[in-house]
């Protein structure tokens, strides 16, 4: 069995993973946004780099220049040329013309003898000039090497050939100027030498007839004419903001998803109704209240009055029905509503539950037993000079302290009254039990707003006098440890725990609604700075 996000046993399904991504979507969006922004920022901060490429065909050059020393045939000749183009000797010649220039790269096009020479530079014109000059200097080097080879071969041949011609002419002239009777003797005398001279002249003549045209062809060859010039690039090859941003998106998604699951694992807050049930088992979840989002112009926390037809109020009616079924004898009696810590929505939940109960025909009395931070009087818009503590001390009768809510004939509110120095002792006294008993004797449902369980012992002390205790937990706020500790503390004092309420539910738990409403004119006003509903 796989372990769920809060450490319990349970098989994780696809919707669980999707739920994590939806709850933590801000990490995914933020990760993608930051990586894309970083990629774009770094891209635009970089100096643009331009790429220019020239091209030449090696066999055609070889034919024009003849074979240079060290040159091979076929693939080996191409490979040698690609190495020589990038040599330090060629680089120094290019540097002498253009100044400091980036090194080139050479690439042989597959199945051809074409060589591409590429140069990258922050100067587009310089990149094009360098791409042309590197192969040009390479071909010039091969030209000079070919000329040297031919000239080295012709070096001894030319003077020997010219000397043999001059000696032959001298002998023939000497024979021609001799007396007739002497010519035959001279011919016999020079016959061997003339034969050798004619052989030398013929052999050297063949060599000269081959090498002299070759040297002329080499001398007339212009290396740059063998190079297909590079075009000056219009767009840089680096950086590529769009491409970098495109690559940043999947990387950001991966990081965002990883962060989402990491924070989900570290987050111990309640995220679903199942989380609450697992922590408080066997207690049931008697109500799931959706998240309520106030408009900027404010709104009453009594959504049951401000928007009675909203899905949120329907959730409170469902809670009311669940609470009614908890009373097997038909009498609801007194219901204590508390939470683990502050700001979990227990007071708002109790106030709206009181309204929907009253509108269903039940006589309801709301008592503010939070004698440390009372808020019932603020929500219902009633004065707090006289209240529960006033009745407790016998200053006023209970009937006089109860305050009616305009338009709600079945609803009465008993605010906290002046705050006492010892709330826990006051709530634990039998005088408190007597006040509750007198109200129940009149057949009313008493709803008591109590301080959080973990912070103080007030709720535990009051639980001895109530018929029902309900714990409110807020999705995304209450942690599993807090809720577990609250239930544990209440069970230790044998509080009549009957169930829990999941407040501020979102997504499927909240019926898919994030309800907005605006306070109507008739709704009770709350003081400025009042906390939002939920």
Low-confidence segments, ≥5 residues, pLDDT <50? Answer: 68-73, 295-299, 508-534
Strand count, sense and barrel status of the largest sheet are: 8 strands, mixed
Mean pLDDT: 85
Structural class: alpha/beta
As laid out across the biggest beta sheet, the strand order is 4-12-11-6-10-7-9-8
Would you count the extended β strands for me? 13
Residues in β-strands, percent: 5-15%
* CA distance, first residue to last residue: 35 Å
CATH class of the largest domain: Alpha Beta
Can you lay out the helices and strands and say which pair or pack?
Elements: H1 14-23, H2 25-45, E1 50-57, H3 58-65, H4 74-85, H5 88-98, E2 105-108, E3 114-121, H6 124-177, H7 180-220, H8 241-266, H9 273-280, E4 285-290, E5 292-294, H10 303-306, H11 311-326, E6 334-339, H12 346-359, E7 364-368, H13 376-380, H14 388-392, H15 398-401, E8 403-405, E9 408-414, H16 423-428, H17 430-441, E10 445-449, H18 458-462, E11 468-474, H19 480-492, E12 497-505, E13 515-517
Parallel strand pairs: 4-12, 5-13, 6-10, 6-11, 7-9, 7-10, 11-12
Antiparallel strand pairs: 1-3, 2-3, 8-9
